Amino acid sequence: TSTSRDEEVEARVDLHLADGTSGWQTRRSARLRLQPLGLPPQLVDADGDGRDELVCVSIRTSAMRAFTGSTKTTLDAQLTVFEIDGAAFVQPPALNVPLQIAAGSRGTSPVVRVRPGRRGVPGDVLIAGEALLERRLLGRRSGSLRLADADAQARVPDGARVLVTDELGDDVLILTEREVRHVRFRR
User: Fold this and answer.
1) Which residues lie below 8 Å from residue 131, measured CB to CB, with a gap of 6+?
2) Do the Cβ atoms of 137 and 122 come closer than 8 Å?
3) What is the value of pTM for the model shown?
4) Pure H helices in the chain
């Protein structure tokens, strides 16, 4: 949800636990207050430990107009990964890093997708920048996550749209007026 407090817009992420009867408890067990979200939150096992974490991509309020413009612009965003411990979000977050993401032209969305880790190995992050789609590996150090520099990239031509076609982010399309490019980063 979102609200406005003292003329500042904030996003709120509420945690509701299952009630044991295939439903949800009506009262929230935890709440996070964040900058406005640039993308829907993800629940994904980012660190590969077998439990889902909450992934949020927030943006500055002043950057919101970029979503309605007719040109491609870059946004200052924040990628934050919260571990969930029972009925609470663990503070501080496991990962909190600034990103530059492309806010495409009218009708397109920025792309930041955390892909799950497997068998104790952290996952990775797909990020569409101004002219590149890149993969950045997640790593663990001292109990928190780290985001490495890009280890794989694909060029995104001017005017192209980047579309993630599956839930895990394994299939990515780069769409131009004349072609469709299928991109798959091996893990």
Assistant:
1) 155, 156, 158
2) yes
3) 0.84
4) none
Rounded alpha-carbon distances, angstroms, from residue 9 to 51, 67, 92, 177: 31, 16, 22, 37
Strands (E), 86-166: 88-89, 95-103, 112-115, 124-128, 132-141, 144-155, 161-164
List, for residues 55-87, the tens digit of each pLDDT value: 999 987 555 555 555 555 677 889 999 999 988
Q: Is 46 left (phi over 0), alpha (psi -120 to 50) or beta?
A: alpha
Close Cβ partners of 130 (under 8 Å, ≥ 6 residues apart) = 72, 74, 100, 102
Tell me the pLDDT tens digit for each residue of 110-126.
789 999 998 889 999 99
Q: Compute the Cα dihedral for 59, 63, 66, 72 and give only its sign.
A: negative
What's the token pair of residue 105? Answer: 């032209």
Class of residue 80 by CB neighbours under 10 A (exposed 0-12, middle 13-18, buried 19+): buried
